[in-house]
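re: ur question from earlier - yeah i can do the single chain one, its not a big deal. heres the input i used so u can compare w yours
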Amino acid sequence: MKRKCIKSATAHTQNRCAQAKMKTKSIEQLEKDYWKEPSEFPTDMVKKCYQYRKINITDLTDEQIRLLFSQQIGTEYLIGVALEKLERNILTEGDFY
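and the output i got, formated as tokens:
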């Protein structure tokens, strides 16, 4: 029984450590998907998404996270940060348009 608890605690610690390392990286780095910079962006929103993918996850603003979620970009990496922000302030908000 004790061994399971120790293994579980170790796995939990490793998971937290992996999450902390993840937050110091950008979506672009985590996905290992580097978009080429076009000579011209079709819309301002596409340009923003391109730029936001290069920012470390912990440095993203609430609005930047909201936009990336709305475009389904990096959601698996952003969900933890978004939930932490909501736990600190349930009234956290971003612009809609």
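Residues 34 and 80 are 22 Å apart (CA to CA). not sure if urs matches, ping me
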